[in-house]
Specification:
- With 119 residues, the protein is α+β, with helices and mostly antiparallel strands.
- The chain has five helices and four strands.
- The protein has two domains: 60 residues; 54 residues, no CATH class.
- A four-stranded mixed β-sheet has the order 2-1-3-4, with helices on both faces.
- It starts with a strand and ends with a helix.
Length: 119
């Protein structure tokens, strides 16, 4: 199973999602996205897998979002994905991707990840 978790170890939901994966016997590839942000192309892919526009991946309560002076039009997926490369704190977390089956979920609540790993 090729599972990737875009993880923030300081986030309780992200830690719980990772724990659920590990308890289910899944050893995901962990990407700490704050230090290794996804590329714009990866963010566009995640949004497509989740069935949402890129704006659907935003943490609108984050100070980095509220205080942004360089925020592009929220309807411009490509520009917003580029912006998120340099503002990864604003990306919803955790995003868990099953590459083998082209599926993804956001681990909010963490139990959402169980949809990806059920046999």
């Amino acid at each position: 199973m090729s599972i990737i978790i875009y993880h923030n170890p300081r986030c309780s939901k992200s830690r719980k999602t990772l724990q659920l994966l590990e308890e289910a016997g899944v050893s995901p590839r962990v990407v700490e996205y704050l230090s290794a942000p996804p590329s714009a192309a990866t963010t566009l892919k995640h949004a497509a897998l989740l069935g949402v526009p890129v704006a659907g991946l935003l943490r609108r309560g984050e100070a980095d979002f509220k205080d942004a002076t360089d925020l592009p039009d929220l309807d411009d997926d490509a520009a917003l994905a580029e912006w998120l490369e340099t503002h990864p704190k604003v990306i919803e977390r955790p995003i868990v991707v099953d590459e083998a089956n082209n599926r993804a979920v956001v681990g909010r609540p963490p139990e959402n990840v169980l949809e990806l790993i059920r046999k």
